[in-house]
Amino acid sequence: MNPDDRTGADGAAVGGNLLFGPQPDVAGAAGYPQAPPRMGFFTDTSVCIGCKACEVACKEWNAVPEDGLELTGMSYDNTQGLGADTWRHVAFIEQRKPLGGQEPGVAHEDVDVFAAATRLGTDAGSPGPGATAPPPDRASEAAPAGRISPLAPEGRTELRWLMASDVCKHCTHAACLDVCPTGALFRTEFGTVVVQEDVCNGCGYCVPACPYGVIDQRKDDGRVWKCTLCYDRLGVGMEPACAKSCPTESIQFGPLEELRERAQGRVAQLHAAGVTDARLYGESPDDGVGGDGAFFLLLDEPEVYGLPPDPVVTTRDLPDMWRHAALAAVSLAALALGSFVRRPR
Amino acid sequence: MSGSDVTRGGVRGARPDREALTGAAAGRRRRRRGRGEQPMVPEAEFSSYYGKPVLNRPTWKPLDIAGYLYLGGLAGGSSLLAAGADLTGRPVLARAAKLGAAGAISLSLAALVHDLGRPARFLNMLRVFKPTSPMSVGSWLLTAYAPLTMAAAATDVARRYRLVGSAATAGAAVLGTGVATYTAVLVADTAVPSWHEGYRELPFVFAGSGASAAAGLGLLAAPAGQAGPARRMAVLGAALELGSFQLMKQRMGLSAEPYEQGRPHLLLRMSEVLTAGGAALAVVSGRRRDRWLAAAAGTALLTGSAALRFAVFHAGVASAEDPKYTVVPQRERLTERGR
Ligand code: SF4
Ligand code: SF4
């Protein structure tokens, strides 16, 4: 158990940057000499419209069972979180913040949408007048009849709606994989993390190990399940089902390096457009898990979306844990020895 | 929901519907107040997603896994007691400890298998050896340790193959120290705040707890003339357990809070009283040569050790179920780093 030993079996690698820190070649470190580039997701939540096409596509493609039909009252989110039967989860957050903050930087300077709206029904192909405006008797001061205004009927201007499609992060240093005693969880040649369902014995160790609360046990089945980044589709050169189905390209799939570059550009673009809230989450190889294979562009702090603000892979401290346990074992032996030594009278 | 349950905070169990807030304004749902002590740190302000936990709740069953932690400690401690008793000519104590170790480790293996989602696939644990997985290390450790305890017990009962028996007893004693302490790494090597944050002290807590449990068993079984080492082990074990637990709580920061609330709090107080009381009784029983006092001390020590394991288990689960324990320390870390 020398921490400097490097063993490659089932990704059970110890030492160097194999437990913590940047690791530019995850697949190589896991024992793939000629691995394809690392693949991942960049989920740009600034363009997510909350349609849940990803959730549906994922369920369909991966034959994920139904996970309970429940109305939660959490905005439009009745899925609640990732788990054994939810591999994509769209979060909905309603905030009292200026509407403008959500503007994704799409320029419409040359089009006056409000002027266009007043012409509703006056030209061919548009719905009749009043189709979207409130009837005259119910119109408020702030939103007079016949005109569309950015104000809510009660005159509130500050509302924004954040939507974000969450998924397994396919961590560079994946705690779930590190702690799996059977080798059921393994690193693929694409640098992703996948459970082998024919090996998992449902010990449940990976569940509390994941710092993001992703992987979970299917009760009636006993084994654990999570996003595979559509390993079967990747193998034949297809993109994952969620990315394929996303109508706004909020979910972008590709080589991680390329996605990281694109994401930097996107943040710069949003900042230039005045959306200063925009930030990347999980893109940095220097973070506590060595960077996520699936990272995000968020418009608020990660915890607002139910994501941990500064996750650290628990196995970073494992060498230290073993050291303390060894010391405790020696202390126990000494304690026993002390119990048998007669005090001199 | 049947009927309304109106509290000061509004209607209990009602969904926030369109009033639902997120961000700092929403805070988290209020926890039921623990009895007794005040929280050590003032209520922290933090954001969460509708108060939902960040982590997934551990799927381990309390009886199986807390029981596993307890029995592993009992077995490991007993193996040490058995080896010492063998060497110093205390046959009754030795036999009780050997039988205790073999019985406890068999039960703990049964608990481990029972907890699996697919018990029939238990042997997949031995598919690989992964030092990064404490459960893998533990499985291999038990694979070596359990047969040794059984050989030690069987040769003692059969009064045969003395040499094999001594070797097995000695081997079990060496591995027993690992069996009693590795379980601390098992729970600490997770993202669960109240387990992970205590990773430095928890092995010592478990070592002390295992020693006091084994001492309890020895006190129950051995006559006063042979129980001297068990009495000393009770005192030393209790001191190690209680001392390192205090140290752990002081160093854990916010993650110590779940240990002071609700069920874990109750279990911990119970374990402290039983362990400290049991150790004191053990000393008195030695002075008075009283079998009944020794039996009472033994029972108290065995129960106290079990209560501690259940407290640790439930505190961890509670810390995983409240986003506060995940978010607040991480946010503080980020602020410190000045991001
Ligand atoms: S997010 Fe969790 S389940 Fe996904 S790879 Fe990382 S540790 Fe494993
Ligand atoms: S539940 Fe399955 S995948 Fe998870 S750690 Fe155990 S064997 Fe590995």
Could you name the key traits of this structure?
heterodimer, A: 345 residues, alpha+beta, Alpha-Beta Plaits, four-stranded mixed beta sheet, two-stranded antiparallel sheet, 9 helices, 23% helix, disordered N terminus, B: 339 residues, mainly alpha, Formate dehydrogenase/DMSO reductase fold, two-stranded antiparallel ribbon, 10 helices, binds iron/sulfur cluster, 4Fe4S_Fe_S_CS (chain A)
Walkthrough of the structure:
The complex is a heterodimer of chains A (345) and B (339). Chain A is an alpha+beta fold and 345 residues long. Chain A has helices at residues 26-29, 53-62, 113-118, 175-179, 206-209, 231-235, 241-245, 256-272, 318-340; strands at residues 39-44, 88-95, 160-167, 185-187, 193-195, 216-217, 224-225, 251-255, 279-281, 294-298. Chain A has a single domain, classed as Alpha-Beta Plaits (2-Layer Sandwich), CATH 3.30.70. Chain A is elongated. Chain A starts with 25 loop residues before the first helix and ends in a 5-residue tail after the last helix. Chain B has a two-stranded antiparallel ribbon with strand order 1-2. In chain B, 58% of the residues are buried. In chain B, β1 and β2 (10-11) form a beta hairpin. Chain B has 339 residues and is mainly α. Chain B has one domain (62-329): Formate dehydrogenase/DMSO reductase fold (Up-down Bundle), CATH 1.20.1630. The structure holds iron/sulfur cluster (SF4) (2 copies). One iron/sulfur cluster binds at residues 168-171, 174-176, 193, 210, 212, 214-215, 226 of chain A. Chain A: It is found in: Cell envelope. Chain A: Residues 121-151 are annotated as: Disordered. Chain A: This is Ferredoxin. Chain A: One of its GO terms (biological process) is cellular respiration.
